[in-house]
Amino acid sequence: MSKKGNRIDVNERNEGTPRMCLSAEDQRHLVKLEQKFQLVRDRTEGVVTGSATGMYLHGDGGVGKSFTVLETLQRLKAHFVVFNSRMTGRGLYNQLEKYPDATHVLEDLEPLTRDRGAQGVLRSALWGQRRDGDRGPMERLVTWTTYRMEHSFIFSGGIILIGNRPLADLPELNAVRTRISVVHLQASDPELRALMRKVALKGFEHEGRELPPSECLEVCEFIIEQSMALHWQLNMRALVNSFQDRLQWEENESGCHWRDLVASRLRERPTWFREEVVVSGRAARKAAEQQIASEIKDLPREERARAWRERTGKSEPALYRRLRELEQSDSHKVRSDNAPVGKSR
User: Fold this and answer.
1) What CA–CA distance (Å, rounded) separates 189 from 231?
2) Spatial contact of 155 and 96, defined as CB atoms under 8 Å apart
3) Which string of DSSP letters, residue by residue, matches 64-97?
């Protein structure tokens, strides 16, 4: 395998098999990133086991914050509930009261920390007084009192807040900060490049449609190249979305080439098109590929795959999908030909 700089060359082949692996430099960056993820896992497990009452995790979008927390909770088989989008102070109180012994994951709820009622609930739920001095269990009494009624309960669970911004510099939130661990998950571009390549090497599947590792790496390297040219920050969501762009193109669901779909995703606008835009309908594009598949189907596998890629630029799984469609079409035609003909009157 040859590398240009730190880039993986997926076009070289050895005995017909793609030689694809991470470079030593990528592996070193992955070790550094894995250490950061392990800190998040440790803090999450601390909340689950009760060694900590909560955690505030923040950082740029698409670096793996929520994925790491939820993966850890699932691995530990923890009792947890997830809330996102919008929540008020009273809504927070109601959910903590409903699940008093669960781990509550509050995702993308930065406005909640500006709610004065929520600030009070968080402080009460994340700290309390011990029964027998320093030796007894901590009782976290949470109350909500209005003119007409009083509510209270003992909270024994944990709270994990995940957001993009750090906690604001307010006395109330500084009091929250002293009760829990605050983690800023920040990944460097070399670390994210290494992670993207690692994910690409696993291949991608969506609703039964597969994108093999070689094509995933092709997409990955294109994103890295374009992002560097644009001084655009890498993130894992762009990678997954671009895999979807490639699958959309491979299934003839787009007239634009996958490279142009990905480029427009990164630039957030249509730009000059580096590949030919096909304006014919999806059915016509698929029929043309089925014709190519029919012409090369009897070739030896490696020669067939090479001919398919040269003529269409698409992956081997796409070839198999076209061949299955041909088989289904032929089978349907045979059944139609053999169907009994109704008697005419």
Assistant:
1) 11
2) yes
3) SHHHHHHHHHHHTT--EEEEES---HHHHHHHHH
User: How far is CA 250 from each of CA 35, 216, 263, 269, 305, rounded to the nearest angstrom?
Assistant: 37, 13, 17, 22, 15
Determine contact, residues 120/144, Cβ cutoff 8 Å.
no
Q: Which amino acid, one-letter code, is at 116?
A: R
Q: Where are the beta strands (DSSP E) in 70-225?
A: 80-84, 103-107, 129-130, 138-145, 150-155, 158-163, 181-184, 204-206, 209-211
pLDDT digits (tens, 9 = 90+) for 210-254: 999 999 999 999 999 999 998 888 999 999 999 999 999 988 888
pLDDT at 3 over 60: no
Going along the chain from its start, the domains and CATH numbers come out as: 24-184 (3.40.50.300), 188-336 (no CATH)
Q: Is the pLDDT score of 132 beyond 80?
A: no
Q: How far is C-alpha 215 from the geometric centre of its chain's CA atoms?
A: 18
Cite the DSSP H helix spans in 151-298.
Answer: 171-179, 189-200, 213-230, 236-250, 258-267, 282-296
Q: What is the tens place of the pLDDT at every residue in 161-189?
A: 999 999 999 899 999 999 999 999 999 99
Contact assessment for residue 316 and residue 305, using Cβ atoms and an 8 Å cutoff = yes
